[in-house]
Amino acid sequence: MDVVRAGVLDVALDRHGDPGGPPVVLLHGFPYDPRCYDAVVPRLVEAGAHVVVPFLRGYGPTRFASGTTVRSGQQAALADDLRALIDALGLDRPVVAGFDWGGRAACLVAALWPERVRGLVTVDGYNVQDIAHSAEPLPPDVEHRLWYQFYLHSERGRAGLAAHRREFARLLWSQWSPTWSFTEIEFGATAPSFDNPDFVNVVVHSYRHRFGLVAGDPTYDALEARIAGQPVIEVPTVVVDPTADGLGPPAGIEEHRRHFTAIAGHHLVDAGHNPPQEVPAAFADAVQEVL
């Protein structure tokens, strides 16, 4: 494991493969960590790629460089973290790939700085939040799936996450991936990442900011203003749509075409919310398709 100063973070990351090979950055979501890519990485390395798998802000050994930096989980911060990491490592137009929070960071870097990436792999399509319309209610059968977000809007929820990090994450894994029989060994490999001292603050801020309930870090105001325009993504993109995601069914190709002008592939996979760990061969194939 390496640690690299990138923007406001000292980012802990794993690097694999030939440093001269085409670069790929794999980004995990909430509540997961780089272990979700353990079976994806060897397939990409065998294909000649240089693979970088970082711990996001608030996870594992990644730390904020300053005690005064806002412990923000807003989408602009995640995007800027990824941009800064690409620059710090000197990666030449990597493929960026991810799901959940990691998919959001990957989508936003592809949208805001398309010249910095070769292409995109995104689970569930356009992971960019539309904060301006976040107060509009969704149908009840959708709303109930977001219980954890509403829970974290309260101080009771913050205290609950702090006291029960592992139980909280294990429940979400089960609800979001109902067809995946993960083992305690698999969960146990990731669970220590939730012990990061900034985990609770970053997570709570993320789920409050996306509903406009708290202010963001002023550092990212200009980026958030750009994101508010819901920018179209023009880099070559492969969309991976899991058919058993407990957060809801796939959006469909027509919805994806509203947000991506260069869809190079669209794959329906028999998986829940975490395709890299549930169907690693299919996810690696999607990345190789972009490469």
Would you kindly provide a written description of the structure presented here, covering whatever features stand out?
Strands 1, 2, 3, 4, 5, 6, 7, 8 and 9 form a nine-stranded mixed β-sheet that branches. This protein has helices spanning 41-46, 75-89, 101-112, 140-143, 147-151, 155-163, 165-176, 184-190, 199-209, 221-227, 253-259, 275-278, 280-290; strands spanning 2-6, 9-17, 23-27, 50-54, 63-64, 95-98, 119-123, 237-242, 263-269. The protein has a single domain, classed as Rossmann fold, CATH 3.40.50.1820. The protein is globular and about 50 Å long. With 291 residues, it is α/β, with parallel strands linked by helices. The chain is built from 13 helices and nine strands.
Question: Could you report the average pLDDT, rounded to the nearest whole number?
Answer: 97
Helix percentage: 25-40%
CATH architecture: 3-Layer(aba) Sandwich
What would you give as the CATH superfamily?
Alpha/Beta hydrolase fold, catalytic domain
